[in-house]
UniProtKB/TrEMBL annotation:
NCBIfam families: rSAM_HydE. It comes from the Bacteria. Residues 49-268 form the Radical SAM core domain. GO terms for biological process: sulfur compound biosynthetic process; water-soluble vitamin biosynthetic process. The gene is hydE. This is [FeFe] hydrogenase H-cluster radical SAM maturase HydE. The lineage of its organism: Bacteria, Bacillati, Bacillota, Clostridia, Eubacteriales.
Length: 346
């Protein structure tokens, strides 16, 4: 049998691979289908056929950071900035409950307008609706993370973006890789479900460092891992760079599923942006979560991390129906639960 097919088998059975083996699989162009099928089997065995939907509220596109790849970076003057008031955010969460969501994800740039007091007000009011709350609002202090947790936040997403320290610090000027890791650690120690992830195909990113990303996720025992291809944005310094590859993103995702069988893995919007069936393909290659957008009106378009973002002209109601149909069409079901990670392996 082909050596790499054996590696896939080993990963499927033992949920473990050495760095060199991961690199081997990422470089291999022939065993992709087998890899995706194995990830799909492991997904089915450990997290089942249910797909967890998380309603995404993009509540502010104002950001004090300047990440090279991102359209919301502070130096970008070509995007009209907006922020929703606390009550508007609570209102969107209420609508999310109406659409049947059991989790909302509150995402924004790093916007200091939302003080701890404001966030506590938002979180406690949404919590009254008996849904899970995920925050995705960037780097904060331990005290701030603690305050949000005490107010009722359940999960926190903060991608490491890349574990190549030099690349990280080149891509995110003024930010420190060590600080990023400290945030992840702090969140874990406070009892959050911790979500992280990476970009695939950043300029100068090596296959080896993608293998390190995968091993990092396993090492910290991440509860959610979201990743997608880097998509060049016209309004950023990386405008002329080559974007990430769909298949490579899918392979990284599939290997993560093999090595971390019971973690939650979203089929991301960026995947669908570069492949028109990207989320469904991802759901059939290891993913078990989708995060439909529940932001309303022109704000969807203004939350312009990268170009070509899907669903910018659609309503929350439409997206909810659309994704439900797609999930059913591949024989899967929409989960009725809050979708916390259930530990099934040691
Ligand atoms: N292409 C793909 N993903 C991007 N993100 C930001 N900019 C881009 C881009 N140009 C991702 C980052 C961030 C998440 C919210 O969006 O990984 O963590
Ligand atoms: Fe801000 Fe996040 Fe974009 Fe970086 S990736 S510029 S922190 S919104
Ligand atoms: Fe938004 Fe399909 S999920 S249009």
């Amino acid at each position: 049998m082909n050596k790499n097919l054996e590696l896939i088998k080993k990963a499927e059975n033992k949920h473990d691979l050495y760095r060199d083996e991961i690199i081997e699989l990422l470089k291999d162009g022939y065993c992709n289908e087998e890899l995706f099928k194995a990830a799909d089997r492991v997904r089915k065995e450990y997290v089942g056929d249910e797909v967890h939907l998380r309603g995404l509220i993009e509540f502010s596109n104002i950001c004090k950071r300047n990440c090279m790849y991102c359209g919301l970076r502070r130096s970008n003057k070509n995007v009209k900035r907006y922020r929703l008031t606390p009550d508007e955010i609570i209102d969107l969460a209420k609508k999310a409950v109406g659409y049947g969501y059991k989790t909302v994800v509150m995402q924004s740039g790093e916007d200091e307008y939302y003080t701890v007091e404001k966030l506590k007000y938002i979180i406690t009011n949404i919590k009254k609706m008996d849904i899970a709350i995920t925050l995705s609002i960037g780097e904060k202090t331990m005290e701030e993370y603690k305050a949000y947790k005490e107010a009722g936040a359940d999960r926190y997403l903060i991608r490491i973006e890349t574990t190549d320290k030099k690349l990280y610090e080149d891509m995110d000027p003024g930010m420190s890789y060590e600080d990023r890791k400290r945030c992840l650690k702090a969140l874990g120690s406070l009892g959050y479900e911790v979500g992280t992830g990476c970009l695939v195909g950043l300029p100068g990113q090596s296959i080896e460092s993608l293998a390190d990303d995968i091993l990092f996720f396993k090492e910290i025992g991440a509860d959610m891992i979201g990743l997608g291809p880097f998509i060049p944005n016209e309004d950023t310094p990386l405008a002329k760079e080559k974007g990430g590859d769909f298949n490579m993103s899918l392979k990284v995702m599939a290997i993560i599923r093999l090595l971390m069988p019971d973690t939650n893995i979203p089929a991301t919007t960026a995947m669908e942006t570069i492949n028109k069936n990207g989320r469904i393909i991802a759901l059939q290659s290891g993913a078990n979560v989708v995060m439909p957008n529940i932001t309303e009106g022109e704000y969807r378009k203004l939350y312009a991390l990268y170009p070509g973002k899907i669903c910018t002209g659609d309503t929350p109601d439409h997206c909810r129906g659309c994704i439900t149909e797609k999930i059913k069409s591949i024989g899967r079901t929409v989960s009725e639960s809050k979708g916390f990670r259930i530990h099934r392996c040691s």
